[in-house]
């Protein structure tokens, strides 16, 4: 269960909530340009664009949940159970495993347009990183400052959708959302007019009446609608700090609070972290469920021509700015 979105005002921001009932060893990881990225069925990527994102690092390999590269292209994987399908190797295809997908795209593409060209020939392999690390069933959002797309690998092959909403959650497949949002076209952030019956003395007796009917539950489709509505009506700010705060407020509106959603295994599904990346400046902002003080890591503060991963532990103890 996750929510991904973008904001684009004076600068481009890309980020997400990651909702799970467990931690997966996540850390903020910067992969510099000369870190060798091995691929199962293609040559090693010895040189590539640098990227920053949240990943678990296993055997010195960054298994990214999402990342943004130095050119400002972002990509995130979101849970897609029951629909994601991966395949055996196919001759004359770009055979890429799902865990290689993010570094493979971000390592060589600076725009969504370039990513589209690579995706024409892709085949996502049904090969796990390790026997004890099964592949996650995912679909992906790829976005830059100009456009966003969704990529889904299903039984009938690869689907690539334009994403005019710049939002993605989980099931069902994305073509559902292209139709589903039409059900909410009457919502407005403004004070609504009386369209119920012009002869009736009906008036709004408080603020927010234009949003009656906006979903508030935690299902994927409801989170999609709410995030899309808030993003579409987001008040524009020219200040970077205000934009970052606004981004996190939107994510907070669809975040999982412990106890609100219980998995079939009886565990609480929570938003284990939220992130917002200033994609133009390469700064990764994030907070965790345990510590909602926003942290910032600047990828340009390290040597991006290096050959070693830079790995940052998450401070899980709540931080406070004490005033007395």
Shape from CA axes?
globular
What would the average pLDDT be, to the nearest integer? 95
Q: How would you describe the oligomerization state of the chains in this entry?
A: single chain
Work out the helix count.
5
Share of residues in strands: 25-35%
Radius of gyration: 20 Å
Poorly predicted residue ranges: none
The major pleated sheet works out as: 8 strands, antiparallel
- Span between N and C termini? 39 Å
The ordered H/E elements are: EEEEEEEHHEEEEEHHHEEEE
Strand elements, count:
16
Helix content range of the residues, please? 10-25%
Pairing-aware structural class of the strands and helices?
alpha+beta
Strand order of the largest sheet: 11-10-9-6-5-4-3-16
Task: Name some characteristics of this structure.
324 residues, alpha+beta, eight-stranded antiparallel β-sheet, 5 helices, 29% strand
Structure description:
The chain is α+β, with helices and mostly antiparallel strands and 324 residues long. It has helices at 98-106, 112-119, 174-180, 220-232, 240-253; strands at residues 2-8, 12-20, 27-31, 51-58, 61-69, 74-79, 94-96, 122-124, 138-143, 148-154, 157-162, 167-168, 270-278, 283-288, 295-298, 310-312. It has an eight-stranded antiparallel beta sheet, with helices on one face. A hairpin with a 2-residue loop joins strand 4 (51-58) and strand 5 (61-69). The mean pLDDT is 95.
What would you say about this model in short?
This protein has 324 residues and is an alpha+beta fold. The protein contains 5 helices and 16 strands. The mean pLDDT is 95.
């Amino acid at each position: 269960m996750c929510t991904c979105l973008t904001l684009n005002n004076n600068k481009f921001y890309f980020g997400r909530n990651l909702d799970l009932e467990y931690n997966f060893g996540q850390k903020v990881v910067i992969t510099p340009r000369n870190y060798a990225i091995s691929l199962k069925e293609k040559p090693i990527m010895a040189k590539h664009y640098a990227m920053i994102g949240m990943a678990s690092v296993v055997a010195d390999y960054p298994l990214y949940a999402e990342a943004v590269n130095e050119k400002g292209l972002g990509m995130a994987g979101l849970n897609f159970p029951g629909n994601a399908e991966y395949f055996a190797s196919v001759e004359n295809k770009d055979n890429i495993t799902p865990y290689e997908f993010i570094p493979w795209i971000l390592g060589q593409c600076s725009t969504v347009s370039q990513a589209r060209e690579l995706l024409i020939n892709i085949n996502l392999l049904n090969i796990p990183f390790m026997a004890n690390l099964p592949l996650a069933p995912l679909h992906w959002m790829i976005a830059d400052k100009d456009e966003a797309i969704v990529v889904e690998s299903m039984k009938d092959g690869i689907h690539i959708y334009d994403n005019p909403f710049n939002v993605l959650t989980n099931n069902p497949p994305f073509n559902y959302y292209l139709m589903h949002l039409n059900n909410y076209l009457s919502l407005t952030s403004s004070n609504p007019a009386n369209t119920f019956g012009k002869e009736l003395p009906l008036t709004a007796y408080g603020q927010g009446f234009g949003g009656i009917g906006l979903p508030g539950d935690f299902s994927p489709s409801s989170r999609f609608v709410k995030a899309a509505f808030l993003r579409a009506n987001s008040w524009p700010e020219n200040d970077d700090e205000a934009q970052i705060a606004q981004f996190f407020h939107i994510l907070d509106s669809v975040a999982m609070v412990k106890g609100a959603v219980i998995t079939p295994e009886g565990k609480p599904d929570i938003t284990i972290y939220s992130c917002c990346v200033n994609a133009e400046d390469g700064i990764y902002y994030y907070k965790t469920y345990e510590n909602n003080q926003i942290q910032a890591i600047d990828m340009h503060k390290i040597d991006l021509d290096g050959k070693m991963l830079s790995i940052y532990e998450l401070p899980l103890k709540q931080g406070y700015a004490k005033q007395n």
